[in-house]
Amino acid sequence: MTSNIKNAYFAGGCFWGVEYYFEKLEGVQSAISGYMGGHLNNPTYKDICSGTTGHFEVVQVNYDENIITFEELTKLFFEIHDPTQKNGQGPDIGTQYLSAIFYNDDEELKISKELIQTLKKRGYDVVTQLISAQNTPFFEAEDYHQDYYFVHNKVPYCHSYIKKF
């Protein structure tokens, strides 16, 4: 069976913690911290922290869909952050830390909407934004942001796993 590598894009607060959890999954080839959604080309961390560029901290998840599905990735995404927090994530407050899924196609949008509806039925007031990844480039973050928790031998401080599905 040949691999079928796809990309998914998730914004769930500080990208360090999001990257940490996705990298542990079987079928995930890599998880790369970066920026999406703003109006500035090739933004720096300093740029997006100003809160004026419109970018989210995003993790690009490169995965083999023969091993793990977009739906499984999205369920984990909702279980490793608080999709009900309106102003950021945990102690990180600001527009760059908002919850969003940058979907690639109608199927990813459909799956994302269905999972949000499931969570709403379970009492979660989900504020996760669904944004088309079309014409929305991904900019890789600086090297010092990549594999942050692995490099520093630490664990996330504002992300934790809570079973919701």
What does this structure look like?
This protein is of the alpha+beta class. It has one domain (5-151): 2-Layer Sandwich (Peptide Methionine Sulfoxide Reductase, Chain A). Helix content is 26%, strand content 25%. The chain contains five helices and eight strands. The strands form two sheets. Strands 7-6-1-3-2-8 form a six-stranded mixed beta sheet, with helices on one face. A hairpin with a 2-residue loop joins strand 4 and strand 5. It starts with a strand and ends in a 14-residue tail after the last helix.
- Cα gyration radius (Å): 15 Å
How many β-strands, per DSSP? 8
Q: Tell me, briefly, the overall form.
A: globular
Distance between the termini: 29 Å
Task: Provide the spatial order of strands within the biggest beta sheet.
Answer: 7-6-1-3-2-8
Low-confidence parts: none
Outline the fold blueprint.
Blueprint (H helix, E strand, L loop, with lengths): L4 E8 L2 H8 L5 E9 L8 H5 L6 E9 L5 H10 L8 E2 L2 E2 L5 E5 L2 H16 L7 E4 L6 E2 L7 H4 L14
Parallel strand pairs: 6-7
Antiparallel strand pairs: 1-3, 1-6, 2-3, 2-8, 4-5
